Amino acid sequence: MIKSKRAELDALCLRFRKELITLLHKIQTGHPGGSLSVCEILTDLYFNDANIKPENAQDPNRDKIVLCKGHAAPMLYLNLAEKGFFPKEELQTLRQMNSRLQGHPNALETPGVEASTGPLGAGYPLALGIALADRMDGRDAYTYAILGDGEINEGVIWETALNASKQKVNRLITILDWNGVQLDGTNDEIMPLGDVELKWKAFGYHVITVNGHDVEEISGAIESAKTIKGQPTIILAHTVKGKGVSFMEGNHAWHGAPIDDEHFEQAMKELEGNR
Asked: For the chain, what are the domain ranges?
């Protein structure tokens, strides 16, 4: 990745973090922690690696992104608005009645959303189905599935993994937002995951581990995944829940807590570089 591209993506991520905090403070609802942790993953995909744009939104040969951890929808919407799928002004309607931008992605209403995801685990089999359909129809598109680490507590994730491995779906690239924290506590407190890398290898996946807040590492891993044939790839992206805001980092309380005025001011100061 050339330096100018990295600088562009890093600047976008910083702006998205500021816009996310501002938006969630205004509406007093939403999921800040997991949205902040997935920022670099989504931004690299939409603005660097995935073949997705409003002009090809109906092209069956486009790449597809499935945000399986649907509660991170605010960061998804920021990327989609910036990409031009809908007016940025519409972001102000997030989680409001009759808005197209609900708390979890709705493929029937929101431009650019490939799959409706809410119940954790439900998005992954959809992503596999999309990848299989593309292969059956002879398309060269990639499907990117973004999982949360709390989400992989769900049995359907592993059923899907078995099937993806059996079907040798190498154009399904999975990215795990591995921030170590879920709704009620850390992964170790709620449901210890053990050796995550070894688990995915045992299920037949090619495994790559990266810093999930380094866009260059993420992009390099995606390029590497595209060279793998005969098996699916998962990128284990080590991230920090609430990344960029000190009091949110690694703190499960900010999974879905509203942002009051005091915390808003502190967060914005930190994001402006006064941390």
From this structure: 3-274
The CATH architecture assigned to 3-274 reads: 3-Layer(aba) Sandwich (3.40)
**pLDDT tens-digit series, residues 210-230:** 999 999 999 999 999 999 999
User: Cβ contacts of residue 2 below 8 Å, gap of 6+?
Assistant: none
Residue 108 pLDDT greater than 80, yes or no: yes
> 138-152: buried (b, 16+ CB within 10 Å) or exposed (e) per residue?
ebebbbbbbbbbbbb
d(CA 142, CA 154): 24
Are 78 and 91 in contact by the 8 Å Cβ rule? The answer is yes
- The mean pLDDT value for 236-254 works out to 96
Q: In what order do the strands lie in the sheet with 233-238?
A: 64-67, 143-148, 172-178, 233-238, 206-211
Strand runs (DSSP E) across 80-231, as ranges?
Answer: 143-148, 172-178, 181-182, 185-186, 206-211
For CA atoms 153, 155, 157, 162, the dihedral sign is positive
Question: What single DSSP character describes residue 256?
Answer: S
Phi, psi angles (nearest 5°) of residue 230? 80, 5
178 - beta bridge partners? 238
Instruction: Please report which confidence band the pLDDT of residue 1 belongs to, taking 50, 70 and 90 as the band edges.
Output: confident
**% of the chain with per-residue pLDDT over 70:** 99
Place of tokens 């999982």: 147
Place of tokens 């929808």: 73
Q: Is residue 275 scored above 80 in pLDDT?
A: no
The residue behind tokens 């502190």 is 266
Other Cβ atoms less than 10 A from the Cβ of 41: the count is 28
Contact 144, 63 (CB under 8 A): yes
